[in-house]
Amino acid sequence: MEFVTYEQEGYVGIVTINRPKALNALNSAVLEELEATFKAVDLEATRCLILTGAGDKSFVAGADIGEMSTLTKAEGEAFGKKGNDVFRMIETFPIPVIAAVNGFALGGGCEISMSCDIRLCSDNAVFGQPEVGLGITPGFGGTQRLARLVGAGMAKQLIYTARNIKAADAYRIGLVNDVFKATVDEEGNVTATAQENLLAGAKKMAAGIAANAPIAVRNCKKAINDGLQVNIDEAIVIEEKLFGDCFETEDQKAGMGNFLAPKDKKVKVVPFQNK
Ligand code: DAK
Questions:
Q1: Using a 6 Å cutoff on CB, does residue 180 contact ligand 1?
Q2: Per-residue pLDDT tens for 20-59?
Q3: How confident is the model at residue 77 (pLDDT cuts 50, 70, 90)?
Q4: Is 76 a residue whose pLDDT tops 90?
Q5: What is the distance between the alpha carbons of residues 83 and 107, in angstroms, rounded to a whole number?
Q6: pLDDT tens digit sequence for 121-166
Q7: pLDDT tens for each residue of 251-260
Q8: Distance CA 46, CA 38 (A)
Q9: SS3 content of the chain, % helix, strand, coil (to 5)
Q10: What's the rounded Cα separation, in Å, for the pair 163 and 120?
Q11: Whose CA is nearest to atom 59 of ligand 1?
Q12: Residue nearest to atom 40 of ligand 1 (CA)
């Protein structure tokens, strides 16, 4: 792969968009490689993914404006479909995906982060949907996912004004779950950069998720995603089905068995087997 790398650390997979010279902008090749990378993830061996960008300046600075600028209507539609298919694949991917936003997350960059389950960012992160300034609407789900995440009023403000916001404001409006900054020692020397702390924080969260019962975690993702699309009565039925689906699994027996075991037989970390 030219633009996407994949590393496996225990149960956690790290997908990195690696096109730093163009601030990791999404062109067709990046989208195709992202799709291939996600499709190749071994779901037996992987329980959580992290999606990040190469370098310390940008997560993803949007769709590739150079490539888009010459598209015909038909080509624009095909490009939009490719992006939407990839983003929807991430959103519905069976295991959780954490976006580790290490800088600019603009346009398609903000949108791809919103197709992930959870967003963490470094304190230099910048979020925004600048599309109306380019003469287009957010086309990779921005009008839909931003409104669902931060509410219609705030989404409309961000989209209509095309104004970027910094990490602290993204945290304030609930677009990101946490912001990481550099650590400095008593003399003021940087001992870990914001990006290093971001990736460490994302890995820690991913490992925590991976330590829980994998079938239950997957079913929670599906229940939340599917339930948000329907009314509450239908949503409760979805939840019931996915709740019932956990029973008779080895993981359910192991989890509840450990809770009920005598104190001296309890383990701190239940060795869930994904079965
Ligand atoms: N596309 C292509 N190249 C980009 C890019 C992008 N989005 N963003 C940055 N680059 C490139 C720059 O051209 C430059 O390349 P060289 O000149 O060095 O070859 C390199 O990355 C470094 O960028 P800068 O020199 O501009 O760096 P600065 O630090 O000065 O500025 C910046 C950083 C992020 C503020 C600036 O680069 C910038 O404003 N970038 C554009 C951000 C943006 O507007 N993003 C939204 C793109 S629109 C669709 C669905 C979805 C979409 C479209 C259609 N359909 C349904 C059809 C999505 C649209 C978008 O995402």
A1: no
A2: 999 999 999 999 999 999 999 999 999 999 999 999 999 9
A3: confident
A4: no
A5: 12
A6: 999 999 999 999 999 999 899 999 999 999 999 999 999 999 999 9
A7: 999 999 999 9
A8: 11
A9: 50, 20, 35
A10: 20
A11: 63
A12: 61
Which of 158, 160, 54 has the alpha carbon at shortest distance from 110? 158
Q: Which of 3, 19, 23 to mutate to test the pocket of ligand 1 (most atoms within 8 A of CB)?
A: 23
Q: Which residue has the tokens 């925004």?
A: 128
Is the overall model pTM greater than 0.85, yes or no? Answer: yes
Asked if residue 255 has its Cβ within 6 Å of ligand 1, the reply is: no
Q: What distance in angstroms lies between residue 249's CA and the mean position of ligand 1's atoms?
A: 47
Q: Residue 211 and residue 48: Cα distance in Å, rounded?
A: 10
Strand order, beta sheet including 118-122: 4-9, 12-17, 48-53, 97-101, 118-122, 178-180
- The residue whose C-alpha atom lies closest to atom 14 belonging to ligand 1 is 22
> Catalytic: 9?
no
Annotated catalytic, 111? yes
